[in-house]
Design a protein that fits this description.
By secondary structure, this protein is of the alpha/beta class. Helix content is 39%, strand content 16%. It has 14 helices and 16 strands. The chain has a seven-stranded mixed sheet with strand order 4-12-11-10-9-5-8, with helices on both faces. Helix 6 (202-209) packs parallel to helix 7 (235-245). The chain is globular, with a radius of gyration of 22 Å. Pyridoxal-5'-phosphate binds at residues 133-135, 138, 161-163, 220, 225, 253, 255-256, 279-280.
């Protein structure tokens, strides 16, 4: 590990370089500060390792252009929202056509029939609903799971993230379930009805489900928000067996792991969820998410007493499934998320993975690389983590931020959260090679 002092000096140099080369972004940041909290319309935009935000002029394919006329190979891709590239042509075209014919109407259009069939074919679940965000979709499926099982508890894995869903913003501290630090104004104790166990720990999972009080396990095929933690062989089989044995619904959140292939990790690995959620990139970057359920869960939902005053089931937001989102969703499902697109993404992600591994070997660095299809993650630990706690322990925020800033100054954009790199259908081999060259020079310069 580099010495703290030397790392700080390198970061200082790179910060000056960023300031020197981004005068227009600086100017806009100063002007924006008057009327936006933190100077930006959404506070996550301040999570980049930058002294002021980078202002975007345009984003096309896998390239992002800023207001200072600099361009970047974009491996962040809107933190997955633009996984299929910025403004994929079929989505832009469908949006332009629909925009002149109504944006939202609280009514379905003809294409909804086709979309339902396309979702079913892709993910293998017969019955669907739409929301605006994956957060909303997760909130909905947890509500429905509690409603149909009549149970109050839910279970998530330590280190998970499923959006700003209160009951999932929890973690394990010394074996105890706690609300995550830093939550602003939670409505109550976020941990009150949530159980948390470590990923890949089937024994702990069995114990947590044993009393038959857990409505649902909500999980990703792999943890992708605390570095990357892949499932150990057999873990998903045990998860499915245990949830079935205890009458607990299994919800798979494919929002990030859609990177695994056309039907996400569920289809690639033959998982058998009772409910499935996917958001972010599913409509090419337009606000849109979907959730699907099995025929059996559908029947249980339909058997619920219909005594909710209309619109007060606690499910939904007004703009869900608006006409524009439907247009984008259909275009993305049928013309963008193709087998050919995924083949390209997989091949270039493999190139990046192997290139990074070779680089680590050359420099004898005890780090590692993990991958789920188009999603690549560099981890600072010597071995891949087996759970959220191990993954968190291997993180080094200062090193990470310095590395990201260094890469950004040279035209390679990583997501501000851990070391995730995403490959789109538009990411060229040359962009991957440029990223590898920038990593090479970063590692050569990192002190120690
Ligand atoms: C696995 C997973 N599910 C759900 C969400 C929430 O997505 P959104 O912020 O679009 O609501 C995220 C966000 O990062 C996520 O990583």
């Amino acid at each position: 590990m580099p010495s703290a002092q030397a790392l700080a000096a390198l970061r200082e140099r790179e910060l000056h370089e960023f300031e020197r080369t981004h005068p227009r972004s600086l100017q806009l940041a100063q002007q924006g500060a008057a009327h936006w909290q933190g100077g930006v319309p959404f506070h996550w935009m301040r999570d980049w390792p930058l002294p002021f935000p980078l202002f975007v002029r345009a984003a096309q394919g896998a390239t992002l252009h800023d207001v200072d006329s600099r361009s970047y190979d974009d491996f962040c891709l809107g933190d997955t929202g633009a996984m299929f590239g910025h403004s994929p042509e079929p989505v832009s075209r469908a949006l332009a056509q629909q925009a002149a014919q109504g944006l939202t109407a609280m009514l379905p259009g003809e294409r909804t029939v086709r979309i339902g069939a396309a979702l079913s074919e892709r993910f293998g679940l017969p019955c669907w609903q739409m929301t605006q965000t994956a957060t909303d979709a997760n909130r909905s499926v947890l509500r429905l799971a509690r409603a149909v099982t009549g149970r109050s508890e839910v279970l998530v894995f330590n280190g998970c993230y499923h959006g700003t869903v209160d009951e999932t913003l929890v973690c394990l501290v010394g074996g105890q379930v706690r609300a995550r630090a830093g939550l602003r104004g939670p409505p109550g104790n976020a941990a009150a009805h949530t159980r948390v166990v470590e990923f890949n720990d089937a024994a702990a999972l069995a114990a947590a489900l044993a009393d038959g009080q857990v409505a649902a396990v909500l999980c990703e095929p792999a943890l992708t928000n605390m570095g990357m933690v892949l499932p150990q062989p057999g873990f998903h089989d045990q998860l499915r067996r245990l949830t079935r044995a205890h009458g607990t619904l299994l919800i798979i959140d494919e929002t990030h792991t859609l990177s695994a292939g056309p039907g996400g990790g569920t289809r690639r690995d033959g998982l058998e969820p009772d409910m499935l959620v996917c958001g972010k990139a599913i409509a090419g970057g337009m606000p849109c998410a979907v959730y699907g359920v099995t025929g059996a869960v559908r029947a249980r939902i339909e058997a619920l007493p219909d005594d909710a005053e209309h619109g007060h089931s606690g499910l939904g937001t007004t703009l869900s499934a608006n006409l524009l989102a439907l247009a984008a969703l259909e275009a993305c499902l049928t013309e963008v998320m193709t087998a050919g697109a995924f083949a390209h993404m997989e091949a270039q992600a493999l190139r990046l993975e192997q290139g990074l591994e070779a680089l680590l070997r050359r420099r004898a660095l005890p780090w590692h690389v993990q991958r789920i299809g188009a999603r690549v993650e560099l981890g600072f630990g010597a071995a891949p983590a087996r759970n959220g706690s191990e993954s968190a322990a291997a993180m080094d925020p200062k090193l990470e931020r310095t590395l990201h800033l260094y890469l950004l100054n040279r035209g390679t954009l990583l997501t501000p959260f851990h070391n995730m790199m995403l490959i789109s259908p538009h990411t060229a081999a040359a962009a991957v090679d440029r990223a590898l060259a920038h990593f090479e020079s970063a590692l050569a310069e990192l002190p120690g």
